[in-house]
Amino acid sequence: MVLCETGSGMETEVTTNGECKITLGLADTPETQAIWPHSFKLSLEITVGESLNLELITHNPTTHTFHVTQALHTYFKVGHIDQVAISGLEGIKYIDKTDNGLQKLQAGPVTIDTEVRLRPPDTNYIHREQNGGSVEPVGKNFS
User: Fold this and answer.
1) Whole-prediction pTM value?
2) How far is the C-alpha of 117 from the C-alpha of 95, rounded, in Å?
3) What are the start-end ranges of the E strands in the chain?
4) What is d(CA 29, CA 40) in angstroms, rounded to the nearest whole number?
């Protein structure tokens, strides 16, 4: 099945800051309309420089409303999951999708001992004890 329309695909550019920007694009086609009956343009902008920035953009070219859920999932290589702690969520309400969607209040760092699917509302910090480093995901324009 072909999902990409002619002319959509990939664009590259060097930004004024000297960063490399790659844009991948997808737009609706008769094949996508058969699966999901809405016009759309989806792009993923990947900018590589001193930092890595990913921007997922959905554009509705019509006046008809549609609902869309999308996410960029991050995966971190860790030695042992039981040595991972996620800090920065203390006092934050979250929805625990592994516990029937219950809303909970986080107390202390999140430690992992079973499957975890949390939906925190704000940016958080992930500290990898084994590697001695930390990773700071930065999110913006979420609703």
Assistant:
1) 0.57
2) 9
3) 10-14, 20-27, 41-48, 52-59, 84-87, 93-96, 102-105, 110-111, 118-119, 125-128, 133-135
4) 9
Count CB atoms within 10 A of the CB of residue 84.
Answer: 19
Q: Where are the alpha helices (DSSP H) in the chain?
A: 30-35
Calculate Rg over the CA atoms of the chain.
19
Q: Rounded CA gap, 102 and 94, in Å?
A: 8
How far apart, in whole angstroms, are the C-alpha atoms of residue 120 and residue 92? 8
Residue 22 contacts residue 10 (beta carbons within 8 Å): yes
pLDDT in tens, 118-139: 555 544 444 444 444 455 444 4
β-pair partners for 108: none
